[in-house]
Sequence to fold (457 residues):
Amino acid sequence: MDQDSENIFTGGDAKEEPELPQRLSRQQVLTMIAMSSINFSSMISYSVLAPFFPNEAKKKEVTQTVIGLIFGWYALCVLMGSLLLGKYIVQIGAKRMIIMGIFVSSVCTILFGLLDRAQAGTQFIVLCFVIRSVNAVGFAAAMTASFAILAKVFPNNIATVLGCMEIFTGLGLILGPPIGGWLYQAFGYEVPFIVLGGLLFMMVPFNIWILPSQDAVPTRDSFLRLCTIVKIPIICFVVLTLSSGLGFLDATLSIFAIEKLSLSPGSVGLLMIGLSLPYGAASPIFGLFSDKHPYARKWMMVIGGMSTALGFCLLGPIPVIGVNNHLWLTVLMLVVIGLSLCVTAIPTFAEMLVCAHENGFEEGLSTLGLVSGLFSAVWSCGMFVGPTIGSYITQRSNFEYASACQGGLAFLAAALQGLYSVYEVHRKRSIQANGILTGHGGLPDDRTPLLSSPNPS
Fold:
């Protein structure tokens, strides 16, 4: 992209983009290994139940709406846990928070596999909510702390590193459904949870040994102050639409595929690879692009959001267009959604950090905890809204209309982000045209490093 084109996006003069360090320090290597193991094991354990749990719950006299609530309640508890733990990450300790979170999640995953022994009806439903609630707090602890640690250890290339981490997130999401579906068909309900819960438990001693400790000083900044920055709620809405789409698919796609496309639970697991494989494969590419061209982050969110909206509208597809559902169309739209979610999601965390630092938040683990806690909370809010409302619409109408509603939500978020981005560019160019510049010769710019680089160990 040439200089003039870049100025149109940024509203100012271009600066040199940050480059990845040629050599990683020992601390950075150990952190990447630890975070990769956490992402993979957490996601494979999380995604294992999507192909077969909704049908299994129906056998236990659970309605589609309650199934959606079971998925959504998990996300609601992650939301509350993320806000609380993000605020006190310095006091608890990032490493301790991750270890405790993984341990709690592993135990709860194994316990969830024993629910087939519960009585149908109320007992099964109550135990589902209780175990998922505790599991969610453990997951919130691990994810909130991992985002903060990555941003602290890789201050200049957070989008690139998060993109690389999403490879392991994608692998977990890819392997979880087919492995879960196969183990369920071969051995029954309990085995998938016991096997993958055991894998998650193995990560506890591994990360105690390998994960570096992080020291920090608490600050007086708060979530309330962070949310008063206009740009932050808009980005949060974008994040919410992303996670609500994934949550909606977790709760409804398997039943749609089994009833409308005549697929088995094992085949449904393979179908979900169409979503997670493109997401995981493309994440490091878009992460690197985001760090090399930070001025394009806002437009990545707009383009990705619009593409996501199109994918959800054609996933069913929406009945008004007169196209029947076909397996090939479902797979194609899952690929489109996976790529679009990747384009939209990768720049969001880095953009929130830049915005916080531009508005006076201190550089350090405390601010990173606030931003990562807010990010995890909003993501979890979407994971509650998506399956809960999506399942309700599916039960009252059908999957096709519910998917179209999800597409409409993504379109609205992309439109708001686009309007604000245009306003932001116009404001910067107007200020520069009037000669109202800051002491360093321009407006705060999103190419500057997010944090000072850590001392290599």
In short: DSSP finds 17 helices and no strands in the chain. The radius of gyration is 22 Å. The CA atoms of residues 152 and 283 lie 20 Å apart. Residues 1-21, 441-457 have pLDDT under 50 and may be disordered.
